[in-house]
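the two lines:
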Amino acid sequence: MSVLERDEHVAHSHSAPHHEEGFLRKYVFSQDHKWIGIQYGFTALCFLLFGFTLMMIMRWQLAYPGKPVPIIGGLLGQANAPGGIMLPEFYNQLGAMHGTIMVFLAIVPLAVGAFGNYVVPLQIGAPDMAFPKLNMASYWAYFTGGVVMFSSFFVKGGAANSGWTSYAPLSVVATTGQTIWLLGMVCLITSSLLGSINFIVTIFQLRARGLSFMRLPFFVWAQLVTSFLLLLAFPPLEAAAVMQLMDRVAGSSFFLPSGLVVSGQVLANSGGGSPLLWQHLFWFLAHPEVYVLILPALGIVAEVIANNTRKPLWGYKAMVGATLFLGFMSFIVWAHHMFMTGMGTAISAFFQTTTMIISVPSVVILSALLLSLWGGSIRFTTPMLFALGFLPMFGIGGLTGLPLGLAPTDIHLHDTYYVIGHFHYVVAPGTIFAMFAGIYYWFPKVTGRKLNDTLGKLHFWGSFVFINGVFMPMFIQGMAGVSRRLYDGGAQYAHAQGVLHWNSFMSISAWLLFVAQIPFLINFFWSIRKGKKVSANPWEATTLEWSAASSPPIAHGNFPHPPVVVRGPYEYSPPDAPSGFLPQGEVARA
Amino acid sequence: MQIPYTVENHPETGVYNGKLGVWLFLASEVMLFGALFSSYILLRTNAAHWPHGVEEGLNIPLATVNTMVLIASSVTMVMAWAAARLHDLKKFRLYMGTTFLCGLIFLGIKYVEYSDKFHHGHLPSKSTFLAIYFTLTGLHGLHVIGGMIVNGYLWGPGAKLFHTDHARFSNRIEVAGLYWHFVDLVWIFLFPVLYLL
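prediction for all of em together
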């Protein structure tokens, strides 16, 4: 009996009689990883648009301080923007919620919840995630967290307004919105905990036969390391959130020092707490979180680049090693966000050393991706354009981070627009471009139809030009010393006058960036129904998900028979294959 | 559709899915309580004066009894698992019931301790020591309640699985037991740190 025959035998003896599920079970409380991935993706894209909208409103205030917000000014509410003119308190809410929504409700759910859920089980040849019920619970915990966060805009005093970092003691004495922020975070932490356990168990236990670890597609490696970061880095933030809740609700003083004066009054709390403790616990999560944002993006870009250069990835083993090292190191660099807090030069010296060390594996991965292009016959498909756009953008984001990782230069640049420019280059034209690459790349697998290429290219070039228009001038303003937290964009500061004219340039770029997303929105909804129908493997790709049926049916497993993997993930252009590629697995058709 | 290794062990990792899952969950729990214990150390080393537990109204004899109760419940949990493996539903019910009862006694004693402190105005707002005391023991108490819900389910309605899928049932007892031992272990750290040091 050959391997395939034996599998067939196993598959038949295991297949239970299917019964059709109701609408609720199939589409709302689905336990199928593909549908949960779609749910995650759709919700996260909505939040991405919402977070972007908050920013577009803020950019009006920055460019034209004190002028009424046009078009939607009347919708902001009398309490937030009387006569359409934004109040500083409301500006702070928008800032805090933009950060929170983009990081915790948009990018991570999109990168891990959507792409991870949909692609990982397919790429490793599994029938589903290891714990389908937990997977469903993870989505609904995320959804609840999103609703809770969103609802905070409607309580007295509005949403959280102490920045996405919620630094104490400011956040402890802030309005009710902060309590709701903390409750929302507890939901989101629960969601990511359930998700990360599920991913790790799935990748360890459910790989198809023959799929050894060094045959895993790089995307799966990226998701595996990401899951470990989520699993181990989020609980300290949960502890910190519980302590801040205690401070706010039970009147304790974990983060409140003795004799704290607020609005001219000495607070009547017991004191003895430490505001620095919050920062340590927060950044213990939030630095690994940066790698949670970037690793899945690197994974997607690696898949797209290998597929469109028609070559194996250059330095696959080095990339895997670098990813593991990166995951480990990301736990011991957090205090480079705190050089300005006066925690001491010895601690600063330690953390700037580890920070310089962690830049090495990042450079290894980026270099390997860049060298993978060498000598390839590149197909300039839409996903490839986004992946190619990602490389220099992530490069700029990474390199501008070095001066921030060194304490002497950071003292100058800390809390200026330079910092905003730096991390947005990593996350916006970096990660979000990779997310778009992923959407264009896997859309045919999910829907059985391709996204339109002309609209896709319009989307890419528009986004590429305008996103640089938004973030590049931030470096100029930041080096001139403009603080990132100014409600008027720096208009009242003498040192900012020389670079003030960039504010309207950046704002107009941001609004044009929105215009550049319109082709995508049209393309997305049009192509779901009317896009060009394609085969199960339109990109001639090697990894296992392309061996599954086109638009694999929901709630019926992924492969008619368990696939068997016989080679590495990127066997493109081997000399002995006339088709130009060798699929990773042998999948018996039903 | 059948998900592999829900009951039988994976040949490479040597565990079934649920067991690996719960170990990962416990790893994250270690980070949760680890962060709180680290905060305790940081707050204490920064404090000008750190009260001894007894000064703030902590009751060492009651906590000692509670420690014994939890250790006993861990023993009965193992025996419940052994009984389940040996196909003895009666004994399983007895030991699992005892484990549940121990959890109840623990919470009862904790309730007496808490209400005594509330009564005397020993609240989280009084001192950072009491704040971390209530946070750590409160969070631990929630973990005890969570474990009791699982144990109660496995004792009652969940025991149906004993007849239909015995291997899976004893796996569930094992996984619930791992969690229960962890909750016990957290208390073993909490007791000296808060009451004795």
